What does this fold into?
Amino acid sequence: MEYKDYYKVMGVKRDATQDEIKRAYRRLARKYHPDVSKESDAEERFKEVGEAYAVLKDPEKRTAYDQLGANWKSGQDFRPPPNWDEGFEVHGGGRADGGEDFSDFFETLFGRGGFAQANRRPFRGRGEDSHAKIVIDLQDSYLGATRSVSLKHSEIGEDGRPVSKTRTLSVKIPKGVRPGQHIRLAKQGSPGSGGGESGDLFLEISFRPHPKFHVEGKDVYLNLPVAPWEAELGTGIKTPTPTGSVNLTIPPHSRAGQKLRLKGRGLPGAEPGDFFAVLQIALPRAKTEEQKAAYRDFASAFDADPRADLEG
It folds into this structure.
């Protein structure tokens, strides 16, 4: 996926005011409108300008985009960092400008998660709902927790440029919550109009990467190293899980990639997930002459060709 420099597309500086961005859009939209432009690439340029303006005119999207940094160049291969949009509060929802066919770059940043989760509500005096992503630890889902969460949003300052604002909330993390699920905080969204009630705040859950475990749906996985003799002869191994260590039985003749299941030890819930230990054969290095001799004895003790299936 290619990085798009929206400031370059609009021909403005990164510290441009909202009025400068609006004037640049009007000028470029007139220049490249397919109905009047004689430029050979008018339609493509018109779409690029519309996409850039959809981001830069919106203080919240612009602030999030700016966080990616100024060192990227147009056309450069790009993948957003994990949880790049953590803690950005976005008001309202839906597509940026009526559902245009925007690029994969735009869709990756703003077409998923908190930036496009809900449709705007009809105006009835009620405030808009807000959306944000928060990152929690795996242990928080197992045990439940209360966490202090800081959320950032942007407003237009007196100089016409986005100003970042931060608020801190105490959030109860329910036991068993999974990545992609949402926590609803009633009346913590945008204030209502004319005395109307505030909208709600929806927090999308993401898990912080864990050094040992990874989550797939409601199941939790651990890559468990075992020695060759442990895998072949079988043994009991003290194995870590998110709720403490257990003694796991490795059956004889186990193989690399084999999954050993602990039922119900995944993420908790009415139907809890399972915990899987995925066996990885760890081959010890021969660092001494005695260890090398042991490997030679091991080789002579077996009449085995690991590449026999490749012949013929």
Q: What stands out?
A: The first strand starts at residue 90 and ends at 91. The radius of gyration is 27 Å. The first helix runs from residue 6 to 10.
